[in-house]
Write a structure and sequence with these properties.
Blueprint: E1 4-8, E2 11-16, E3 19-22, H1 23-26, H2 35-40, H3 45-50, E4 59-60, E5 66-67, E6 76-80, H4 84-89, E7 99-102, E8 108-109, E9 115-117, E10 122-123, E11 126-132, E12 148-155, E13 158-159, H5 160-163, H6 171-174, E14 181-188, E15 200-205, E16 208-214, H7 222-230, E17 240-242, E18 262-267, E19 271-279
Parallel strand pairs: 6-17, 8-14, 9-19
Antiparallel strand pairs: 1-2, 1-5, 1-14, 2-3, 3-4, 6-7, 10-13, 11-12, 11-17, 12-14, 15-16, 15-18, 18-19
The structure holds zinc ion.
Length: 300
């Protein structure tokens, strides 16, 4: 038996059925209310979750204002070109090692937060997100799931001008604007999922399906990514890995995000995050049009 962990207004809660239970109260103060402390204590959460039915719920989860399940990760990673159909649409070779970039932790946002667009060339990327639960260094692939606290849904919102503004391209800043990393709604432990290795991912904009794939099509799956990253640096509880996006991003079909657009991202078994786009001030390179996007945006 596993657990379902969420962040309600900055406090860690466990979700059972339609209700949530304040974690600090449910464990009689043994774990603090900070969601980061809950992640560091994730070995204890299944046991606490198993005894929740003896307690009165704090409230219905449907009415709660959710924050990101890991609000302040030490490290936050994105993986590029990790589905074959996205590598193909990008005109890039299939990578033979993970293509890793930083999504700076300050971009992490709640599952239903607004996204502040800072240019007219901002894209959606629906992704499976893995959150680390145990300090991981030089972990073998076969052991890697034991270091994952849980999985959730994420959006790797991407400002294409910033991504391609320098040569060679540097992805980190373009994917790290404030609000560009919404995650949630709930972090579900791997052993609480019927098939953690293959779940259907769908991303829609204003109800139109743009991306639909199975997380089983990941080139480098979650255990491989945890093993690879832990061989380079020490992964810490709460660290976040955006595992990459399937084909269907907006840049290659001239369907970039606009003021008022609603991005809905669902992974079977993990739930849905919904993010409304709000056009904000231009960033310093907002008018820069990446060379590879010019043919597609001709006439814009
Ligand atoms: Zn991505």
């Amino acid at each position: 038996m596993g657990f379902r962990l969420a962040n309600v207004e900055g406090r860690a809660v466990l979700v059972l059925g339609d209700d949530y239970y304040d974690l600090e109260q449910a464990c009689d103060g043994r774990i603090s209310s900070d969601p980061m402390a809950a992640l560091a204590a994730c070995d204890q959460l299944a046991g606490i979750a198993a005894r929740l039915s003896d307690r009165a719920p704090t409230g219905p989860i449907a009415d709660a204002k959710l924050g990101p399940p890991s609000p302040r990760p030490t490290n936050s990673f994105g993986i590029g070109l990790n589905y074959r159909n996205h590598a193909v649409e990008s005109g890039m070779p299939i990578p033979d090692a993970p293509l890793v970039f930083a999504k700076f932790p300050s971009c992490i946002a709640g599952p239903n937060d607004d996204v502040a667009l800072r240019s007219d060339f901002v894209d959606y990327e629906g992704e499976l997100v893995a959150v680390i639960g145990k300090t991981a260094k030089d972990v073998a692939t076969d052991d890697a799931w034991a270091y994952v606290a849980g999985l959730c849904v994420g959006q790797d919102i991407s400002d294409r001008p910033t991504q391609f503004t320098a040569t060679p391209p540097q992805f980190g800043l373009g994917k790290s604007f404030d609000t560009y990393g919404p995650i949630g709604p709930v972090l579900i432990s791997p052993d609480d999922l019927p098939d953690r290795d293959a779940m259907e991912l769908t991303c829609s904009v204003n109800g139109e399906v743009r991306q639909k794939d199975s997380t089983g099509d990941l080139i480098f799956d979650v255990p491989t990514l945890v093993s690879y990253l832990s061989g380079i640096l020490t992964l810490l509880p709460g660290d976040v890995i955006f595992t990459g996006t399937p084909g269907g991003v907006g840049a290659f079909q001239n369907k970039l995000l606009r003021d008022g657009d609603v991005v809905t991202t669902t992974i079977e078994g993990l739930g849905t995050i919904t993010n409304r786009c709000v056009r904000a001030s231009d960033h310093p390179r907002a008018d820069f049009l990446p060379e590879q996007m010019k043919p597609l945006l001709a006439g814009k």
